[in-house]
Amino acid sequence: MRRIVIVGNGMAGSRLVAMLRARAPSADLAMTVFGAEPGRPYNRLLLSNVLAGVADPEQIGLLDPAWYRQNGVDARLGVEVTAIDRSRKIVRAADGGETAYDTLVLATGSAPIVPPLPGLRPMAPGVVAFRTVDDCRAILRGARRARTAVVVGGGLLGLEAARGLAGRGLAVTVVHLADHLMERQLDPEAGGVLARTLDRLGIQVRVATQLTGVLTETAAAQSPDAGGLEPAAGGPEPAAGEPEPAAGERVRGVQLAGGTVLDADLVVLACGIRPEVGLARAAGLTIERGVVVDDRLATLDDPDIHAIGECAQHRGTVYGLVAPAWEQAAVLADLLTGADGRARYTGSRQVTRLKAASVELAAMGDTAATDDDAEVVRFADPTRGTYKKIVVRDDRLVGAILLGETSTAGTLSQLYDRAAPLPADRLGLLFGGLAAGATTVASDPAGAPETATVCHCNNVTKAAVRACWDAGARTTGDIAEHTRATTGCGGCHADIGAILTWLGRRQTAPSPA
Ligand SMILES: Cc1cc2nc3c(=O)[nH]c(=O)nc-3n(C[C@H](O)[C@H](O)[C@H](O)COP(=O)(O)OP(=O)(O)OC[C@H]3O[C@@H](n4cnc5c(N)ncnc54)[C@H](O)[C@@H]3O)c2cc1C
User: Fold this and answer.
1) What is the torsional sign of CA 359, 360, 362, 363?
2) Within 6 Å (CB) of ligand 1, which residues are found?
3) Residue 235 confidence (pLDDT) above 90
């Protein structure tokens, strides 16, 4: 019997475990999975929804302990792997145990970057780096007693955190080092429009601004308004039995380059992530930004060790989104079980959507092109918070930004995913209803092509949803069970619903004869 050990039980590791078991029974494949975080794995994407108050931590769990038992998987939850001994083919864990493997998979994800600044090493009470469910709980505890928050980092994660905190009634300032928000996904003009939108929602944005330190209670005790605080309006009540923070233990503000001080009762760090490669490095595996893997997701130095998810670097890219991690898990499950020995991972196209109430934003590909070969079509209405742009090369969509109004996001991501030739009516691609030959799944499920990707996190097409229907699936839950659509960021619920409604109507409609 083959022994597979998986280190990391997050989004990639837990998905791999489920996919391996779906392809191979326990008689053929013994599996052990280590997860440093206590408890069952959970959907990390939905932590933003927990912060925003639209989901509970209890609702975002993935595989539960009973599943592991029923499927013969040895799940070591809350146990960190501390070393890999490649010569003996064992991993050593923090509990002192040694576990032998034939195949080892690293799915250790990333750790938040914490700048080496005063107040951050060690982290002052009231400062939280946002990555795990425990971080989320700590932020919620802090938010109960806070009136003002500073979010450090104006990327996707920082803005989702800022919106969630503003929705809970806190006065929020985002401090961002780069010249504009979400600089990896947006061009400067879109970043500016987004900052104005956030301002209207009560979130102040300071770009090109460097944090130089976090002020603790001693430093800010000199501040005239460092008095007692009331909980923020609309914030959740403290949980019964939860200890009140001791007086004088709260963060009081942040300091910026140039000396400006911003008051803050809560500081959330979202300054970027760094792949967790410590184990792999110590084991002598090739590391660049992540653990370098080939198209079989095997490390360059050891064919029995693989890496997937945010800790892996494939063809020079380290991905920070769930869809690539899950595509990698599917390829590796095929290879390790022999379900498809020719499966190869060749890279993923990245589509980003912001999950923040009252801020519609979708971005994909290369949006900052300025070269002569790029055809750029743009529309900006900053006072209404609208900015739309497509970048076209060789008649193919290579990048897009939709901000403020995203009705054509589905169409654009289909065209981007498939690298399909674009309709001549470029403007129609920016504004819903005008796009010649291109339809959105939600607005026209019948007209959308069968190959249209409905769920980007799980790479599920309209054809796959229809195949489920033909096999008897009737609800979104049925579709999720068969295809996993809707189980990632959840942004495709409306599309799946629209397809099901359309298929239902087709079934009940009288035949033309
Ligand atoms: C709040 C938030 C919102 C997000 N929203 C989106 C979104 O909308 N769309 C999107 O595509 N992506 C989003 N992401 C990113 C997405 O969550 C990640 O890309 C995804 O989780 C990567 O999966 P992973 O398994 O590689 O890493 P993780 O999910 O981080 O899992 C890694 C796991 O490995 C464990 N581990 C590490 N080292 C060890 C060890 N030595 N021993 C045992 N266990 C170990 C860690 O504790 C962790 O549980 C979001 C992330 C956050 C934090």
Assistant:
1) negative
2) 7-13, 34-37, 44-45, 47-48, 80-81, 107-110, 130-131, 157, 276, 279, 309-310, 320-323, 325, 355, 489
3) no
The Å distance, Cα 492 to ligand 1 centre, comes to: 21
Residue with tokens 């923090």: 94
Both tokens of residue 230? 């009331």
Quote the ligand 1 centre to 39 CA distance (angstroms).
15
**Is the bond preceding residue 236 a cis peptide, omega within 30 degrees?**
no
Measure the CA–CA gap between 435 and 370, rounded to whole angstroms: 25
State both tokens at 104.
């080892």
Q: How far apart are CA 199 and CA 194, in angstroms?
A: 9
Identify the DSSP state of 56. -
pTM: 0.89
Antiparallel, parallel or unpaired: β 90-93 and 81-85: antiparallel
Written as six digits, the tokens of 76 are 């070591």
Best CA proximity match to 145, nearest among 66, 233, 84: 233
Band of pLDDT at residue 25, cut at 50, 70 and 90: confident
Instruction: Specify the pLDDT at position 214.
Output: 95
Reported as a pLDDT band with limits 50, 70 and 90, residue 81 is very high
Tell the residue nearest (CA) to atom 2 of ligand 1.
45
> Distances in Å between the alpha carbon of 98 and those of 30, 83, 92, 469?
15, 10, 5, 46
356, 489 contact by CB (below 8 A) = no
Closest CA to 491 of 323, 318, 317: 323
**C-alpha dihedral over 286, 291, 297, 298, to 10 degrees?**
30
Would residue 413 be called left, alpha or beta, if left means φ above 0 and alpha means ψ between -120 and 50 degrees?
A: alpha
Which element (helix H / strand E) includes 307? strand 305-307
Query: In whole angstroms, what is the distance from residue 369 CA to residue 366 CA?
Result: 6
For residues 433 and 423, give the distance between their C-alpha atoms in angstroms, rounded to a whole number.
Answer: 13
Asked if 161 contacts 151 with a C-beta cutoff of 8 angstroms, the reply is: yes
Q: How confident is the model over 384-407, as pLDDT tens digits?
A: 999 999 999 999 999 999 999 888
CA distance 315 to 294: 7
Pocket test for ligand 1, best of 19, 42, 45 (most atoms within 8 A of CB): 45
77: left (phi over 0), alpha (psi -120 to 50) or beta: beta
Task: Say if residue 109's pLDDT is above 80.
Answer: yes
Q: Which residue out of 11, 19, 277, 457 has the highest number of ligand 1 atoms within 8 Å of its CB and is therefore the one to mutate?
A: 11
Question: Which one-letter amino acid corresponds to residue 404?
Answer: G
